[in-house]
Each structure stands twice: as structure tokens, then as C-alpha cells.
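Batch job 17 of 40 flagged for manual review because the log was empty.
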Amino acid sequence: MEANGAKLLPFYLVIDASYSMSGKKIDSANRILGQVRDALAQNPILSDKVRIGLVDFADDARVQLPLCDVLEPSLNLPTVTPRGGTSYVAAFELLHSTIAANIKLLKADKFLVHRPTVFFLSDGAPTDRTAEWKAAFAELVGDKAYPNVIAFGVDDADARVLQSLIHPSTGGKQMQMYLMDKGEDAAKAITAMAEIMISSVLESGRSMSQGESGIKLPDKEDLPAGVTSHTADDDFV
């Protein structure tokens, strides 16, 4: 399909599929795509402007849903099943190659592709060596077509590690991360984080349709209960 200059905004949902996500946490994470689809079904004009993909990661990383229009009638949404450790390296390397390939194909079809956005959800620290995951992340965000990265953490996710994934971390288009409040239920926090993702998808799509650019994130006062936003400048002890 040739688009003749139509604008597209790609979003990648990246879900931790390690064994620690088993149970209610992975159930909540698996509902996110359906919730995104339902929200776009109520705003169908935006479905022409956004594309959604799903990558999960454990010891390896897999594209569970190639970048697509989630309102396609024939689309069957995938289910993420916990299977291993928490390799950030695997996630970042697969994202890097996948985003590059997707942008190339979309541009070949004459789409104008806005900067991609990654929603990165994890409940634990990476099992890779620090130098290795940092190098893989640097490769991911080092390209001209680097993605915006917004991190989401529950349970044992390391706040300082996730904070280092905020990208861009400075300037006028600084991204954020979202952490589960202490004592909250992780599955409920993931459901709240899904609301943030959906709000961002819808508001960013609307903004683009009005000729603006850049990812839109909800204001602090509009965040659902149980989740707090942080910037790259916040201090963690």
C-alpha cells in the first residue's frame, strides 16, 4: 500500500516476559494491546495515524506483533508467556533492528514516519552485565532515527536502571519514566500504566493530526493512582 505522504507515528510496546512476571502481572500486561485497540476503535480517525507493535523479552527477545494497524479485522492479538530471565540486551538489539527495518519499509511505501516511541515495561533488573546492556542501549538510541524511550517499572525494577533508559533525557522533549508506588499491587499498577500508554497514543495521534510533532505524555495531576512519574533529573537513594 502506497501512502503518498501520509504521516505515521509508530509505538512499540516492550514487555518483560521473565518468569517473575508470571501470574497477575503478565495477565495485566497481556490486556494492554486489547485496551489500546478498544481506545482506537472509539477514535478510528487516529488509527490511520498510529501503528502499534509488541516485543517481549526474557533470555531472548521476540516480535510478538509486527508493527501494524491494530484495527485490522483479521488481526489476532498475541499472548505473552513468561519463559526465562531478563535480558535487556536481547530487547535493545531486537528493537534496534526491528525499528530500522520498519522505518525503511514504511518510507518505501511513501509514508512520512515520525520518531518512534518505545514503552518499556519491566519488573526486575537486567540479568546482563551492566556494560553489555548499556552498550546495546547506546546503539539503539545512537541512530538518527532513535526512538523516544519511556520506561515503566513495577516490583523489583531498579529505579536507577530504568531512569537511565529515559530518552531523550534532556532538552525540550525530555521523556519520563513511571514507577509503581511503594506498597501498591503490581498487576494493578500495570493496568494504571496501560492508561498512561493509551493516553499518550491518543493524544500524540491527535497532536500529529493537527500538524504538531512529538510524543505527548499526561500531566502529573492526570496520572492514575498508584503510579508516579519521574524525570532523568530525579534523585534516587
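Reviewer: the log was empty due to a logging misconfiguration, but the result itself is present. The mean pLDDT is 94. Unflagging and moving on to job 18.
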